[in-house]
Amino acid sequence: MEPITRRSPVVFDRPVKNKHIRDNWEIVLEYDNEGPGPHLVDLSHRSRWDIQDNQLDGYRPFQISIPQAPGQCMFKGGLLINRMNRTQASIWHLAGDTPDVPADPAYTDTTDGTVFLALFGKNGFAIAQKLSALDFLEPSSRAPFLLQGPFAHVPCQIVVMEKTAESAGILLTCSRGYARDMVHAILDAGRQFGLLPAGEAAFSNWIEKL
Amino acid sequence: MNRLDGLPTCRIDSSRKIEFSWQNRRFTGVAGDTVATALYAGGVRIFSRSLKYHRPRGLYSLDGESSNTCVGIDGIPNVSAENTVLKEGMQVRAQNVMGTPRLDLMGFLDKLDWAMPAGFYYRTMHRPAAVWPIALKQVRKMAGLGKISPDFQMPGRFDEIYPTADVCVIGGGPAGLSAALAAAGTGLRVIVMESRPWLGGFFDFRVCEYRPGLPLYERAAELAAQVEKAANIQVFKNTAMVGAYSNNLITAFQKGEADDPFDERYIEVRAKSVVVATGCMERPLLFENNERPGVMQAACAHRLAHTYGLVAGQKAVFSIGHDLGIEAAIDLFDLGLEVSCVADIRKEGQDRELVEKLAERGIDFLPGWTAVDCSGKTVKSARLCNLDTYVQEQFECDLLVASAGMTPVTGPLCLAQAKMAYDAHTGYFLPRQLPARVHACGRLLGLNDAAAIEVSGQVAGYSATLDCGVSVEEGLRQAREKLDSLAGPAKGCDLVMAPVKGRKAFICFDEDTTVKNIKQTLAMGFDATELIKRFSAAGTGPAQGAIPGHNLALFVARYHGRSSAITQPTTVRDPLVPVHIATYAGAYHDMCKRTPMHDAQKTAGGIMQRIGVWKRARYFSSDTACTAEIENVRNNVGMLDATTLGKFRIWGPDAVKALQRVYISDMSKIREGRIKYSAMCNEDGCIIDDGVVVKRGENDYYFTTSTARAGQTVEWFRYHSRYDNWDFNMVNLTDAYGVINLAGPNARKVLEKLTEADITNSAFAYGGFCEFKIKNTIPVRAMRLGFVGELSFELHVPSSYMQSLWAMLEEAGRPFNIQPFGLEAQNVLRMEKGHLIIGSESEQRTTLNDVGLSFLWDRSKSKAGTVGAVALMHTEKQEGRLKLVGFKMDNAQRAPRDGSIVVDQNVCGHVCIARYSTTLKEVIGMALVKDHLAGEGAQLDIYEDECNGQLMHAHVVKMPFYDVKGERLSM
Amino acid sequence: MALTLTCPICGERNGYEFRYGGEDKGPRPRAEDPAPGHWCEYVHMSPCVAGIRKEWWYHKDGCGVWFTTERDTTTSLEVKQPEKTR
């Protein structure tokens, strides 16, 4: 019998250079010829939780304070906490060891509910404006910030991690079922800018520099 | 034709040749040409034949103001040659031509105009009634412009973009560029849309001086350079604005240039403020044969020379009504065009300097004269007439430059709901009332003076900046003061028509509407311009009334002897410019959901179909009756991918209250380890969803919904508790869990091989819920359900594990020959069991009671507090409702198609589903029928499409059809 | 739905991100046994006058909040910022 594995909904049609298995997930660390960027990285294996409670401000997930206002994000110790509304926030694990699953009923594991992608590098926003009318470059928003809205016509949670003249960094999650079409739409929109899929290593390098 | 090389205003590169074909003959254009200018340079004068009369038509304008130069390009009909940049290898064909454009066999129709008065298709050929269908066919065959093959596949790369902007400037001429620079100077994000391939507007092709030593075209280049340099201005050239909607939503489309990665792309901008700076076009002069090839507008002749290096003819007559016409005559004379005379409708008011320049060149200047007729298939001579004395004079010429004056391009403003009013001084329709956060500037306002045009742009730019909350009051005040000190709007020419009868004076080129047609329409009593437009078809062609728009309203006002002030132009509608549907579709990424088992099911022979937002396996073989799939479930074991079911977690102190509100049953007593089946109704008691709820902890529930309702369930819960302030939380887990329905008498034997959990019937009975691990790794939420009527386990597993579990089940089931089954097999299986699918066995009006599920309704619950309960109570005893029944066909071989109607004297219902049941060896089905047919044993007469009066017969029977006692699902 | 609506969580967005939830007619009637006409009135009847209406909207493509906002139905423009709603 085959070993039990967890699979991402995303499969990039590129030759794999380097991969490994972590917590039953088969993870591509690097593809052949990833190019200079912009890059699209599949992070669907990274743990994600929903935390929801009427008294949300009383929670400190992984000893991190949840940001006060909807749209605000907190990135600390490899974890990103995005305030969605008065009662709800999402928690995304971006770097470091996978944390333990919190036991409190306020948390729901949503890792398998969404596809998780990172789009970063030069012309990232030029790609984004082909897919969404959301205003990623609104001058008053300071990265990281959360936008909840349509991207390629699909409702998404989008966090702008980096917003500079040279470079964009966007994380997005949407319903897992859309994974293939979402990736197709993003790669298609990014083709003119040289967007290529990259492995997790490229993401880790980028997130470390932030 | 030789190009004038070395003109500084030229936008062509005559050293770079571009090959293309016209009517299958090889032509050569140059880089920078449009299809129209390349054809003109190649000597083509007749581009097409007109819609009704098959009159020859040629180049009249250069921005696509009429269908004269609509051609077929690479199989795409009705492409405006004027707006299409020439590309290598284009195959261009004339339209509406039988023969050649010069010798069109249908040309005789021009003589039959008496038989085709205004609205003739409404008035003639209708009696006797039998004539019309035949006539219609002929009219249809002859009318219309380009043709398209029904199986035509649109070639090209289409894209879309949704840029964000504070200020959106429509029009990249001097006013628009000034507005953009003013707004961008304050740091705002600005978008400029320009329909031509370059910025500069009507400065771009003119050589007269902006200020001493600086010609207009160089001034245009200065402005353009500043705009292109600004980091916060995004410029879209080759971009036609096509729509303006609520709160400044601007849509446009852009044609790609050679190095763009798209052929056309759709643009949508939501701007805080909009500046319209679309300038003016020329108002056509109405005289007999005013649309002959060889007649063209002044700017057309002017730009042909200055932008494209083409002198439009040998010998020209000018009949104009605006100083720009005189300027064109002078410039073209200097480039070698012989100018017989310049007739100006205006008796006085011309720029004296220009008149002197005419005199210097020995060109006859005839103020108070206008063209009244021209002759020749292409112009051979023109007749001019003095407007006071009616003295006429004939001039030989091959080019008649004709224009009554200018008219503002108000389309974008009108779409933005600006109120327009006639202005007697300029003769224009000017914006009298602008909507909030929309501004107009430049020639649109009647301005002529170059400096005033730019300053009006600055005023608009600052005003738009204020809309965005940036304080520029001082700049705005100064710009306004400056504008007041500059020349205001000039007096315009208001002549509508030369003194002619108008039998061949065309007010609308696209629809072949003559002045005579308008008079006929008026004589029939149509008085409102809007109705005259519809009856005479003037302005309903592809160019959206660009040619007749202004003249029609003026003509109607004059005809009634009213002052023009009370006339209104006809309504402008989007899209302003014809747009391919493909362009609106843009990149068209068909976004749909796939389950984790998508690929594996395809490999196993699954035929995938789009059902709602999902792609699902409908069949697993070419047998659409799915006999093998069905038999395998009934006799052995099968697997169905049911991932698309809606799945939710709801918890919190008030979770039960929320469940009680939306579910029709009593949800307060859900036992742990048991599943609760229930349904949701809308406020009308109509069933909208069904599913199961399980309790996983204190105030913590997991529930499923039908596939179709998954997207709206959280919304539904929150909507129906919106006034209650209840404390409950919800998470949509639809995509988080994959669902495998393992069904069939051998299901347990398969599952037992993968888990150590006790899944015997005594430990885990029908209707039970339990959680366990597969191979100590995969967490499973398992439900004993029986939708298909057999022993079955519905296994909910985290999506990422689903492929592994599927493979494990396949392997464990191999000794039993486990097989996947698809939706169609499930459809038959559940039908045999009498289980319904909401949306299939119910429709909009079907209540919970109608489908026989009233047992789910808990009457002891608060009716006012339960969505749908009040309506259920009121409709319970209502007569004449459609009820769900099971039926057997009298003929056991053939099933009626789903949706066939049940009839007696009237329509009494419809067949929801009917299939040949392999299990029962007869045709069974379910139907929604009027209550008088719902009793057991009632005969149903079924009418199927194309049954030729042969009704099919069935009898109502009790359900379920299969396993009445329900023993099989509780094995 | 070219209009814009101001979501109390996400701010001003394109109208097509939202679903209309009807005019604000207040909470469900509490009467346990209302006359059919009375109930129907509550469920289906709206004044639908041309002018400013208080309406429910759902931010379906965004944060998923139901909120009320006042909109001029003759221009389809919001006249007031929405109330903060859960």
How are the elements arranged and paired?
The complex is a heterotrimer of chains A (210), B (971) and C (86).
Chain A: E1 16-22, E2 25-31, E3 39-42, E4 48-52, E5 73-76, E6 79-83, E7 88-93, E8 107-109, E9 114-121, H1 124-128, E10 145-151, E11 154-163, E12 168-175, H2 179-190, E13 196-198, H3 200-209
Parallel strand pairs in A: 3-13
Antiparallel strand pairs in A: 1-2, 3-9, 4-7, 4-8, 5-6, 6-7, 9-12, 10-11, 11-12
Chain B: E1 13-22, E2 25-31, H1 35-41, E3 48-49, E4 56-57, E5 70-73, E6 76-80, E7 91-93, H2 120-123, H3 131-142, E8 158-161, E9 164-170, H4 174-184, E10 190-193, E11 209-211, E12 214-215, H5 216-229, E13 233-236, E14 239-245, E15 249-255, E16 264-276, E17 280-283, E18 295-296, H6 298-306, E19 315-320, H7 323-334, E20 338-344, H8 352-360, E21 364-367, E22 369-375, E23 381-386, E24 392-396, E25 399-402, E26 405-408, H9 411-415, E27 419-423, E28 428-433, E29 438-440, H10 450-467, H11 473-485, E30 506-508, E31 513-514, H12 515-523, H13 529-536, H14 549-559, H15 581-585, H16 598-603, E32 607-611, E33 614-619, H17 627-635, E34 638-641, E35 646-651, H18 655-662, E36 676-681, E37 687-697, E38 700-705, H19 713-719, E39 729-732, E40 737-743, H20 747-752, E41 769-774, E42 778-784, E43 792-798, H21 799-812, E44 819-820, H22 823-832, H23 869-875, E45 882-889, E46 901-903, E47 907-917, E48 922-930, E49 939-943, E50 952-957
Parallel strand pairs in B: 1-7, 8-16, 9-10, 9-16, 10-13, 16-29, 18-25, 19-20, 19-25, 20-21, 34-44
Antiparallel strand pairs in B: 1-2, 3-4, 5-6, 5-7, 11-12, 14-15, 15-16, 17-26, 22-23, 23-24, 27-28, 30-31, 32-33, 34-40, 35-38, 35-39, 36-37, 37-38, 40-43, 41-42, 42-43, 45-48, 45-50, 46-47, 46-49, 47-48, 49-50
Chain C: E1 4-7, E2 11-14, E3 19-23, H1 36-44, E4 52-58, E5 66-72, E6 77-80
Antiparallel strand pairs in C: 1-2, 3-4, 4-5, 5-6
